[in-house]
Amino acid sequence: MGGIGYEVLRTAEQISGDRKKALAWYRQPLPILDHQTPEQLVNASRKTALLRYLRSLEAGPAG
């Protein structure tokens, strides 16, 4: 993984509390992301949208 995905992976790790879980999430196709992986979105220059999504998860339902 290049440096471009570092911020996304770091944010996912902060949310999950586990580096291995964050990396597994980063490489797993997700239905909410049109069955693309977060890694694919980062490589398609959609990092900002992905970070927004992660931060909404971090904020929770009241966020």
Task: Give an overview in words.
This protein has about 60 residues and is mainly α. The protein has one domain (about 5-60). Helix content is about 60%, strand content about 0%. The chain is built from 4 helices and no strands. Helix 1 packs across helix 2 and helix 1 (about 5-15) packs parallel to helix 4. The longest helix is centred in the last third of the chain and has 13 residues, at about 45-60.
In short:
By secondary structure, the protein is an all-alpha fold.
What distinguishing features does this structure have?
63 residues; mainly alpha; globular; Antitoxin Xre/MbcA/ParS-like toxin-binding domain-containing protein; Xre/MbcA/ParS-like_toxin-bd
Strand content: under 5%
Structural class: mainly alpha
Number of helices: 4
Radius of gyration: 11 Å
Low-pLDDT ranges: none
Organism: Halomonas chromatireducens
InterPro entries: Xre/MbcA/ParS-like_toxin-bd
Domain Antitoxin Xre/MbcA/ParS-like toxin-binding: 12-60
Protein name: Antitoxin Xre/MbcA/ParS-like toxin-binding domain-containing protein
Secondary structure elements and pairings:
Elements: H1 6-16, H2 19-26, H3 38-43, H4 47-59
Helix pairs in contact: 1-2, 1-4
